[in-house]
Each structure stands twice: as structure tokens, then as C-alpha cells.
Amino acid sequence: MTPEDFRAYGHQLVDWVADYWRRLAEQPATLPVQPPVKPGQVAGQLPSKPPAHGEPIEAVLADLDQIITPATTHWQHPGFFGYFPANTSGPSVLGDLISSGLGTQGMLWSTGPAATELETVMLDWLVDLLGLPARFHSHGPGGGVIQDSASSAALVATLAALHRASDGAWRTAGVDRRYTVYTSTEGHSSIEKAVRIAGLGESALRLVEVDPQTLAMRPDALRDQLAADRAAGATPALVVATIGTTSTTAIDPLPQIGEICTQEQVWLHVDAAYAGSAAVCPELRWTHAGVAHADSYCFDPHKWLLTGFDCDAFWVADRAELVAALTVLPEYLRNAATSTGAVIDYRDWQVPLGRRFRALKLWFVLRWYGAEGLRAHIRHGVALAARFADLVRADDRFELVTDHPFALVCFRLRGGDDASNERLLTRLNAAGEVFLTHTRVNGRYTLRLAVGSPHTTEETIDALWRDLRRLAELA
Amino acid sequence: MTPEDFRAYGHQLVDWVADYWRRLAEQPATLPVQPPVKPGQVAGQLPSKPPAHGEPIEAVLADLDQIITPATTHWQHPGFFGYFPANTSGPSVLGDLISSGLGTQGMLWSTGPAATELETVMLDWLVDLLGLPARFHSHGPGGGVIQDSASSAALVATLAALHRASDGAWRTAGVDRRYTVYTSTEGHSSIEKAVRIAGLGESALRLVEVDPQTLAMRPDALRDQLAADRAAGATPALVVATIGTTSTTAIDPLPQIGEICTQEQVWLHVDAAYAGSAAVCPELRWTHAGVAHADSYCFDPHKWLLTGFDCDAFWVADRAELVAALTVLPEYLRNAATSTGAVIDYRDWQVPLGRRFRALKLWFVLRWYGAEGLRAHIRHGVALAARFADLVRADDRFELVTDHPFALVCFRLRGGDDASNERLLTRLNAAGEVFLTHTRVNGRYTLRLAVGSPHTTEETIDALWRDLRRLAELA
Ligand SMILES: Cc1ncc(COP(=O)(O)O)c(C=O)c1O
Ligand SMILES: Cc1ncc(COP(=O)(O)O)c(C=O)c1O
């Protein structure tokens, strides 16, 4: 494909995206959030072998419209309220387009000086923007890096914690003793996965009790568990505290947990995958109280900061520890810049070797919106969630299940059993105008409404509420 | 940013990419492959804080041109011969643009039915295109998935191997015995990293001797090492064989290695990160002899198949084993489709939870080029490498260090010591017209020329050769 072909097709595809977004914003009803697709439906419409000879882009676009889009869950839809959001934005897509075009592979500083340094600066900007502890800033011994996901960040934090807990023996000896890892019963499943991947086995994971009211980790329970494990000869290596749990956005009490970790000399990783973005708003910084205790911290700009997946921002207070845990330096990667020690080679901060120039999309987003623009985005979501919560609160047939400090509201039919709530959710989603998911809170089936799309309006919320009230009659 | 803003800026940025590619192809001398950048130069030109208020895209584009591009290593440059290539293409960028615009997060089939099924079909297409064993096809118990990198593929293979070697105990118990992992002394550093991440410690890694001539793993040495480890009470879990080692593209003897792995019941992972793409050409399939023994196999379309980073294609012969090793199913991810068992949830095939719709770029590439177009691309690289090798062979001052089955040529000054070869490389790269990297072969400093860019021509090679001959006088 010549550059001129690319120019022509590129314009066409930009138009495709612009039209798609327009339709999502202006005629959302024409695109069901989650379309009625049957397993095998997409595969069944595609040839079983690749073409022998090249095909025109027009043929691909026709299949895109006829096969792919109709079988796509529209995460950017104003009625998408499932899981946590994963919203992108114009500037994010533009930045990523440049990244794709440059095709830089920034495994080393020397293979992408601009990619490396822009990433360091963007992570420093975020420290400032979120009011994170200065120890995460690259000017000192700390620093930040983009991981693909909060799951990978949890894994990398686990590895650095094992390196520290073993005084460096882990690199050579592996898991040579009984390590233990702590998170609350509401901690994300990626902690369990990281523990398993790191070779500790699920038996090493301690799910610390939460307060049944707040669903936040109980510091006393953490302290007791740590003591019991030490008494049993285990080596506590890592505590993962969550700001904004997946199920209900509970906030673990970092001031107390942090103190315990300091006393016990255990690595504290803070997982703020979703809720971290809220810290761009000064009035929501209280959710991050105690974060200065963290040895590492992550949040996902790809969840709630208008940056397309994948983009997890991850910091450590001591980058030397992280690099020591992960570095490998074969001959073919040696180079003059690395040997000076004056540069960051991000391959040593992550699992993969190669890396995309992901800082560009963040740069485009942070500059296009500016701090105030991003605050407006977060406030928009928080306000819509509050509007919805008010409606729920005012209606006897429903109840709020937990607080809603961010833009997630957990609710259910008051007095309804699990089956009736599940039926309600199924019916609500069936029309395709909205998509919500569920969780269980203290064992009970609960609906979750997570606001995130910049296209969601008060009218989206009000229409959803009308549907809910109507369906509650049937439930 | 409204859809109409995006449309206008999008056209502008597509033009930026088209102009950049045109310049790389038509005036490569105006862009030094590796620009003379000093550590801190990019960071020093950027503000230390994010802007309070949004800025226009024009301001970002100005900085892109003045700060970022001049400090970028141009991986798409026709004179980029370093490491292994990471070439993208027009259709790849177009496919990725659609992926960014859709913003689908396909962690589950239900959160991206089209993303999931297109990925399965693309990996099936690749089985056909590369002539890989039918057991990798999703119609049977096997199947493929896109990982970000060959490094992550090696990690995931290691985890599945541990799961198997422990009869499933590893998930709960972790590394509860002495496992061992095998690759050759020429195996990629990502194997060492995977072993470390999996908690086995570097002491678990056996670097099996290679034949000093071919640099391929010696099956007898593998057999001896396995026997010695078993005798010492270790549990061999994984052998990683390489098709196309990083240093010299050596090919491990899979027929013999595979037989040993079958007898010893050890998981065989085949790492064809770079060289896998060559198998699109029937005349290069001999390099994959014995691949039917593999329990898992990976190659990087992002290296040599015109698909932008990141895109590693990874297959297992038994997907149930892989999923059993990696699955976690918290309440908030339960859904009707998953519970039927009729769908693939790719989050259980990888480390991260979330996932981008990466199959789109592969789909665009495979359809635009077709099998024949991709073969032409591979043959172009192989022919240019052969042309260069002929020039080296015909000149007394140089010597070829190894065979060149693919598009990598390893060479050095005949009789020159390490220092003179290193000087030669430094001087050759200094002008910015080409960029090569080095390795050590049997301890001796060796230059590597890896052809990959579709823009590289005979004239690029001949000009490089003229430079080399001139510089050889000075060395
Ligand atoms: C608290 C928390 N941690 C981690 C994750 C995992 O996110 P990712 O897909 O970035 O791995 C999630 C996802 O929802 C989350 O809510
Ligand atoms: C043989 C081999 N395996 C693995 C890798 C790692 O590649 P990735 O960046 O995809 O992890 C490379 C990179 O050059 C390689 O040559």
C-alpha cells in the first residue's frame, strides 16, 4: 500500500470512525449496546482460509459493516454501564494513530528516545495531576511506566515485592519459602492471578475480611492475619489495598494499612484501577488519603480518563528495586546509552520485551482536555451517578446497596430475591438501549450502574430509570 | 472533541502519517535512522506539568514535529537493519484505527463477540497460511490467541507447562518442588525472564549446549541434561526450542527435540518469534520441520509480517490445559455465554484481563496482501539479505559468520578483533543512513544486518555495502 493509497483509505476510515461516534451519540437506539449474537455467528460468516490474493479495502469495509459491527458490544455507547467503563476519545485515537504510523518499538531508550522520555514525563504529569506522592516522581528514586493493564501492574508489583522480601535471593532461587500475599475479600481477581503466575499458588493468598457495611478491608484483621502467618513461619511479601473495588468501589483504609505495612516491612501496592482517575478532582482526593505509604500504585487511564485501552499507569517509589527484579541483559541488547546508566530502559519495568509508543495517546489527551477538561469529565460522571442514586433513593421499590463515592451505583429491588433481581437485569439489558452488569454484595445479587461515557446524558439516565420502574412491576 | 472535530483532525493526522512514510521511502536521508539524541533532551523540552486548560491539536502537532520526531528511532526506515524488524503497513494501521475507534474491550466473548471470533478465525487462517500442525486449529482441542509479545507467550507457555507437570497442583500449591526449564545457550532472554517471573528462579534454567557450527541445540546434550536433572530429583517442566534464534537465526532440531520431549513427557514450546513469518513461503517450510511435536508455538506478525506492534500469535495443542492454568472467575465476570461453555473467553489465555481488538489489524493485513502478497514480502527480504551475503562472501576483508536461512546476515571483518568490529559498527551507524546492531557468536563480536522494511531496496543494500568497504579501510 503506497503512502497515497494510505492517505485516501485513511480519510475514509477516519470518516468511518467519526460516523460511528456520531451515530452512538445522536442515534444510540440504532445500535444495541450488546447485540443479540449467537456463539459462532461471526466465525460462520467468515471464510475458513485467508485469501490467496490481495483484496481491496472496500471488501474489508463491507464485511466490517455487515459482520463485525453488528456483532460488537459497543463500549463507547452512552448506554454502556457495565463493568467499569473503557472510554476512549478523539485525542486518544489521534495520538494512537501517530504511534501506529511511527511504528516505534521502544524496548530501550536507544530504540525510542522520544517514546521513553515522553512516557516518563507523562507519568510525572499524572503525579502532579492526581496529587500523588512526590516519591513516585522520576526526579527522585521513584518513577512511572505504562503497563497494558492493572493486572500486569499487580503482577509486576508482586515480583518486585518478592525480590525485596527475599533480599534479592528470589531472582536465582525462585519461590524457596512460603510467601504470603494479602488483599481484601473484595480485591480484584487479578491479584489471585498474579499470585498464581508468580508461582506462589493460591494457597499463599490471604483474603482479609472486610467491614460488612463499607466493604473496606479491616486493618485489625490484616494485622491478625500477618501475625498468624509469621507465627506459622510464612514470609509476608505483599499487601494489595484497593481504592475503588470492582464490585462496589469500596475504599480500603490506607492510613492504617500503610502503617501496618511499614511496621511489618511488607510491600504495599495500591490498586486504584478505576477510581484513580477521580483524583484529578481536588474534592475527590480524600479517597486517596494515606497513599503516601504505597510502594507502588496503579490506575487505568483506559478506564475513566478518556484514554483508549490499553493504558495502565504504574508507579514505584524505588525504581531500582523494580529493575533489579526484572532486568535481563543479553549481548544483543547492550548499547552505549544503557551502559551509561543515564537512561531508562522500560523493558526492565514490565513483562514483555517490546513496547508500543503509548505515551502519545496520553499526551494528546492531557493536552487537549487539560486538567480542567478532565475534571469536568469526572464530575459529569459523578453527577450522573448521583442523579441516578437520588432516583433510587426516592423510590420505595428499590434500595441503594452501598455508598457511591465515584460514578458507580449499586442497587437492587428492595426485598426482591436474587432471582427477581437477575430477571430485572436480563430484561433491562434485553432491549439493547442500556447494558448493566451485576455483582454480589454480602452474598446478594446486586445491579451495578457504572457511568463513564462522555456521551451519557441526564436523558440517558432518566430513560433508563423509566425502564427500570416499568420492569420492576414485572419482576 | 466532537465527531466533526475528529473528522477534520483525523484527516490531518492521516496526512501526517502518509507524508512521514513518503519521506521515509523517498527521502530517507533526511531522517537519520537513529538520531543523535542526548539523554534528557526530550524531557528537557517539555513542560514539567500538564496544562490547566485544553490546548489545540495544532500545538501538539507542532511539538510532535519539533520535539518528538527528531528524537525518534525510525523503525520503519528502509535503512533500519537492527535487532529484528518491527514493520507495520498501511492496512495494519487502518485496521488498528478501527480498533481504536470501536474501543471494544474483549476480555470475554460477551464483551466483544466479533473481537473474539475474528481473533479465533485469524489464528486459524494463520495455521493454514504457515502450514502449522492441524492440532493448533480451533476446530479440535487446540487454538490460537494474540499475545502482546513472544515474551508473554513464553511466560504463558511456562505456566501451562507447570500446570501439567504438577498434575494441576501448581495452581494451589505454587512452586512446591524443583522444576527445571530448558532452552539452548542461544535461546532468547525472555525465557530466562519467564522462568524468573514464574517463581522458578534462574537456577531452574538449563542452557543446553549448541553445536558451535550451526548454533543449534544439541539433542544429545538436552537428553543428558534431562537425565541428570531427573537423577537429582528435579521435575523437568518445559523445553523451549527456537526457530530462528535472536543472535543468528539458528534453527534447533525439532524432530529430535520433539521426540525427546514426547518420551520425557515435557511440554515443548517453540519460539519462532522472528522466523515464523517465513513459513508463509513453501520453500522455507523446511525450517519448521518437526513443529508437529510442539505443545505450543508462537511467532510475531509484528516482526516480519507487516503487522504493527503489538501482535504475537500463540497456539496451544490443548486449550483446556491453558485455560485451566490461568482462569479465574469472580462473580462480576459471570455471564450467560461463559456459563454455556460454548465460547472462548480470551482473558483466560493471557496475563492481563482486558484486551484490545487486535485481530482487526491482522484481518486487514491478511486480506489486503493475501497469501501471495505476504510471500512476496518475505522473499523480498530474503533476496536482499542474500544479495548482501554475496557481497560479503566475495570480499576478502569480510567474512560471513553463520548461515542466513532468513533475512538476517551475520558478518565481521575477517581477522579483525572485537574492537575493530565495534568501531566499524559505530562508524557505520554514525551517519544515520543505516542502523545495524551487534551480537557475539562463540564469544566474538559480530555485526548483524536484519532486512525487513518493504522500503528497503537493492540500492539501500548497495549503498550500505559501499560505506562498509570504505569504513573497513579505517577500521
Ligand atoms: C480494582 C480493579 N483492579 C484491577 C482491574 C483489572 O483491570 P485490567 O483490565 O486493567 O487488568 C480491575 C478491572 O475492572 C479493577 O476494577
Ligand atoms: C527468538 C525471539 N524470541 C522472543 C523475542 C521477544 O520478542 P517480543 O518483543 O515479542 O517479546 C525475540 C525478540 O527479538 C526473539 O528474537
From TrEMBL, chains A, B:
| One Gene Ontology term from the biological process aspect of the record | carboxylic acid metabolic process
Cofactor(s) the protein needs: pyridoxal 5'-phosphate
- In this chain, the stretch annotated as Disordered covers 32-51
Swiss-Prot/TrEMBL keywords:
Aminotransferase, Decarboxylase, Lyase, Pyridoxal phosphate, Transferase
Signal sequence annotation: none
Q: Name one GO cellular component term.
A: cytoplasm
Q: A Pfam family matched by this chain, by name?
A: Pyridoxal_deC
Q: What molecular functions are annotated in GO for this chain?
A: aromatic-L-amino-acid decarboxylase activity; pyridoxal phosphate binding; transaminase activity
**N6-(pyridoxal phosphate)lysine modifications at:** 303
Name the domain of life this protein comes from: Bacteria
> Gene3D superfamilies annotated for this entry?
Aspartate Aminotransferase, domain 1, dopa decarboxylase, N-terminal domain, Type I PLP-dependent aspartate aminotransferase-like (Major domain)
Family, per entry: Belongs to the group II decarboxylase family.
The protein's name is Aminotransferase class V-fold PLP-dependent enzyme
Species, as recorded? Natronosporangium hydrolyticum
